[in-house]
Amino acid sequence: MPPDVGLAFKATHGVKSDKTRMTIALTCNADGSEKRPLLFIGKSQRPRCFKGHSAEYHNYEYAYNTKAWMTTEIFQRWLKSLNSKLKEESQNVLLLLDNFKGHSLPKGGVSNIRVKFFAPNLTSHVQPLDAGIIKCFKSYYRKKTILRSINLFTEELEKKERTPMKDMFKVNQLVAMRISKKAWDSLSTSTIANCWGATKIIKSPSKNCEEVV
User: Fold this and answer.
1) Which residue, 102, 57, 56, is CA-closest to 79?
2) ∠ at Cα 111 (115, 98), nearest 5°?
3) Which terminal residue of the chain, N or C, has fewer Cβ atoms less than 10 Å from its own Cβ?
4) pTM above 0.85, yes or no
């Protein structure tokens, strides 16, 4: 999304909001040493910006439905995939999840993952991702999209051309996925560990759960 405020000495035309939506699932461990690849959920199997290729071709974990939202089918497929990877790595994990109806376990469960759901209305208090990780991720994403727009604007100035404002802020789904991956990679281990600590569900203390970006 482009900025909705700015600095100007007179009224100027704004930028129409893009109605494209995408869901992103973030998964990380308590000390921030492991961040699992993002799971992207879009509306189309192969958006036009994929240029006929699949999401796997672009090295992204991707699912889709008409609302671009997490569903039981998508979650169970993702969970089984994660379980297979954990088997290969000889790991067993405790997975903490929101009490959301789409987070439903497959029949028979999964061998290497123990799932624990937060009680209703407790997510905002004890969910580490809601304690600052998601906020920081979004801040990095917005920062990188703004820098991209500034770079496009600078390039056009050097060419002595003028790009419409709406095109400077235009980000298709594939570009958004690339920027999201960079934003996720930018999140430091200390930020993640501090956010986990802020929830007090683990013993390690936390001084600050947010990172300046």
Assistant:
1) 102
2) 15
3) N
4) no
DSSP E strands in 8-164: the ranges are: 23-25, 39-42, 61-64, 93-97, 113-117
- Report, as ranges of residue numbers, the positions in the chain whose pLDDT lies below 50: 205-206, 209-213
Distance separating alpha carbons of residues 150 and 84, to the nearest angstrom:
42
DSSP state of 154: H
188 with 32: CB under 8 angstroms? yes
CA angle 193, 197, 200 (to 5 degrees): 155
- What's residue 69's pLDDT? 94
Using alpha carbons, select from 184, 138, 177 the residue that is nearest to residue 56: 177
pLDDT of residue 100: 86
Q: Which pLDDT score, from 0 to 100, does residue 81 have? A: 95
Secondary structure of residue 68 in the 3-state scheme: coil
CA pair distance 36, 9, nearest whole angstrom: 45
pLDDT of 205 reads: 46
